[in-house]
Each structure stands twice: as structure tokens, then as C-alpha cells.
UniProtKB/TrEMBL annotation:
SUPFAM superfamilies: Rhodanese/Cell cycle control phosphatase. This is Rhodanese domain-containing protein. It comes from Rhodococcus olei. InterPro entries: GlpE_sulfurtransferase, Rhodanese-like_dom, Rhodanese-like_dom_sf. PANTHER family: FAD-DEPENDENT OXIDOREDUCTASE, PYRIDINE NUCLEOTIDE-DISULPHIDE OXIDOREDUCTASE. Residues 18-87 form the Rhodanese domain.
Length: 88
């Protein structure tokens, strides 16, 4: 699982992951995704998320265009994930 968030300092002056992260996620800012493609396994199923879902949608498109076979975007991002976890 990958998390694509804005680097620290761009979200209301705080760290982009300050609101929380999903355990086991690899953190890569969207602005550095292309540089990190070689660090990722394109054959491994990949779920991408960000805070609300906008940046992860872009990241999913970038990975799919780069040949990643199984890319999913966590709809609603981390915000939706936290609501789902509270509700369950």
C-alpha cells in the first residue's frame, strides 16, 4: 500500500501524515512518484491513498501508465478509511 500526500509544510503548515496513516503503507509524495518508480514492484498489487482521494487518483494513473498491473485507489482517501474503521 502506498500513500501519496503533500510534503510536510504544505497542508496548513503541518505534516501531511499528521492526521494518521494506514499501518504498513509506504509514504511517497506525489511530486516524487516518478523518481521512485524503480523502487516499487509493478507486479505487486498496489492500493494508493491520500487524505481525500484526489492525489491518489493521479498517482494511480501514473502507475498504470508505467505498467503497474494491479493498481487500486482507496476512494475517499484516508478520511473515508477512518470513518469506515470507526463505523465497524
Amino acid at each position: 500500500m502506498l500513500v501519496y500526500r503533500t510534503p510536510a509544510g504544505r497542508m496548513s503548515g503541518s505534516s501531511a501524515t499528521e492526521s494518521g496513516v494506514i499501518h504498513g503503507a509506504v509514504h511517497v509524495p506525489l511530486t516524487g512518484l516518478v523518481e521512485h518508480l524503480g523502487d516499487l514492484d509493478p507486479a505487486r498489487p498496489t492500493v494508493i491513498y491520500c487524505a481525500s482521494g484526489y492525489r491518489s487518483m493521479i498517482a494511480a494513473s501514473v502507475l498504470a501508465a508505467a505498467g503497474f498491473a494491479d493498481v487500486s485507489d482507496l476512494l475517499g482517501g484516508y478520511t473515508a478509511w477512518t470513518f469506515a474503521m470507526v463505523a465497524s
